[in-house]
Amino acid sequence: MTLRTLILALLVTSLATLRASEPPRIPLAEQTASYDCYAGRLAQAVEMPKEQGDALLKLLDGGRTVEAIKYSGPERVMQPWRLLISVVLTNGTIYRLRIAGDDDMLYLPEGFFVINEATQPKVKQWVAEVDADIRRGILSIPALPHIPVAGQAVSYKWRVEPVFQPRELSKERGDALLKLLDGGRVVEAIKYPSGIAVHISPPRLWISVILNDGVTYQFGIWSNGNLKLPEGHFAINDATRPKVKQWVSELDANLRREVLNAPRPCSYRIGTLDDGGTLSGVARIFYNDGNKWPVIFETNKAILKNPNLVPAGAVLTIP
């Protein structure tokens, strides 16, 4: 391992320790049907020619040209990734890998991996060619994203930003959403100007679909009905958008009942419901009166120094 690689590993995690592990199960070129590429500086996915995607998998050689880095410690922060590659396999499943750092580190389903020194220059060249194709507009937006259909789903989970604990979602309700999305036929990619950084707040709602092959497909839904898919940002068509928003509102209503019915005193994380990030907003939710915010402030003085400055995601005690 080079000194530069070791420094990178130390930046990725605090108190990191390196341990060897089994090689990752990177697909071979002959197992693939198509590829999509999502560039880190763009908020959209682009379709990649099969021969270009195959070239990367041949360099990675089924995982034989990478070395695992396992981390232990309280924090693990990965450098921004350059490219996310979605590999659509011939059996219909999707394998995703991210190229990060200086094009010498991969984030795979099994964890973090460093490309060996012999292969690094070739991968760097491959990334440079993909970047150039994106800038020139050679790579194009795919017609349809790879949204699973209800028949592929075994179970579902959901969570709301910024509450990160996933909840079980009934199969009936999850299937209803996938039927609305119709395998991606009711959405259209949102195109952003090439080469311009686009900063967008995280989706409020995240759905995890556990497929019958064990793979988990995850996507986000914004309050306006737009979707955050692995391929990029997509808008739902006008005919389907009201139905999806109704589906989301029913889920929000269930969450609201769960929060308000909790025995008090209870814990509440800012942003779980539509509280506006303020104590008066929280007071309106729990007491139907925004003017009762001082009650919440007095109870939470240990973490709140100023009633007008409530940290995002702060966990409050509601008396």
Instruction: Report strand %.
Output: 25-35%
Count of individual helical segments:
7
- Cα gyration radius (Å): 22 Å
**Number of extended strands:** 16
Taking the alpha carbons of the first and last residues, their distance comes to: 55 Å
- Poorly predicted ranges: 10-21, 73-77
Helix/strand structural class: alpha+beta
* Mean pLDDT over all positions: 80
Number of domains: 3
H/E element sequence: HEEHEEEEEHEEHEEEEEHEHHE
* Main β-sheet description: 7 strands, antiparallel
Shape: globular
Helix content: 25-40%
Question: Strands of the largest sheet, in order across it?
Answer: 2-1-4-5-6-7-3
Write a concise keyword list for the protein shown above.
alpha+beta, Dna Ligase, domain 1, Membrane-bound Lytic Murein Transglycosylase D, Chain A, 3 domains, seven-stranded antiparallel beta sheet
Write up what this structure looks like:
- With 319 residues, the chain is of the alpha+beta class.
- It has three domains: 3-136, no CATH class; 150-249, Dna Ligase, domain 1; 262-318, Roll (Membrane-bound Lytic Murein Transglycosylase D, Chain A).
- The protein is 27% helix and 26% strand.
- The protein has helices spanning 3-12, 50-60, 120-136, 171-181, 241-260, 279-287, 293-299; strands at 32-39, 45-48, 66-69, 81-89, 94-100, 105-108, 111-115, 153-160, 167-169, 187-189, 205-211, 216-221, 227-229, 232-236, 266-269, 315-318.
- It has a seven-stranded antiparallel sheet with strand order 2-1-4-5-6-7-3, with helices on one face. Strands 9-8-11-12-13-14-10 form a seven-stranded antiparallel sheet.
- Strand 6 and strand 7 form a beta hairpin.
- Helix 2 packs antiparallel against helix 3 (120-136).
